[in-house]
Amino acid sequence: MGTGRDNEWSPGTISTYVNGLRRVFGVDRVPDATTAGGYRVVGIGTDINRFYELVSLAKTEPSEASQHLSHALSLVRGVPFSGVPYQGYGWADRHDLGDVTTKLNNAVHRTAAELAGLAIDAGNSQLAAWAAEKGLLLWELEEDVNKLVLSAAAISPDRSALARAWAALQRRFARVNEPVPDRLSEHYQELKRQGEQQD
Q1: Which of helix, strand or coil describes residue 77?
Q2: Are residues 23 and 53 in the same domain?
Q3: CA-wise closest residue to 110 among 131, 95, 129, 125
Q4: Over the stretch 43-72, which tens digit does the pLDDT of each residue have?
Q5: By residue range, what is the domain housing residue 135?
Q6: Number of folded domains in the chain?
Q7: CATH number of the CATH domain containing 85
Q8: DSSP 140-157
Q9: Hey, what long-range contacts does 34-41 have (CB within 8 A, 24 or more apart)?
């Protein structure tokens, strides 16, 4: 028999943990064991599950997509699992689960880009900038997200927003000694030209 942690969980240990969960979450959320001999937890989830639920709702309810995507991104307060020692959440890095961390980062990136695009189309510069900034949390040098940051600034009523966004973008690339990609420079120049024509 192995000596792994799973073999150390006696029925008494499990009962102690379940009773602790009941005290924190309440008996209605952690009811007694089922007749099958196991415990079930009701009405408790994770930010990851809620994030994916909201993204799915955005697809099934297109008229409310911006609201659902905003709620999903509001759950993102930093880079998922950052600051956690390697395999601190082993389940998040298990290859048989498809690397939860990578999938979640990609989903946050797509959601940020989608919401920023919707907000730009609707003329909502504040929401677009907020969404794009969420995307930058994960990949601050990613070209498409940086383009969205510039586009959001270009539709801002504050005429200096585009210049400030461009300066911040240049600083991001300079911090890692990377040149600003030509695509981003061209996008900035085009947005600047469009703004000058409107003035």
Answers
A1: coil
A2: no
A3: 131
A4: 556 778 888 899 999 999 999 999 999 999
A5: 47-198
A6: 2
A7: 1.25.40
A8: TT-HHHHHHHHHHHHTSS
A9: 39/14
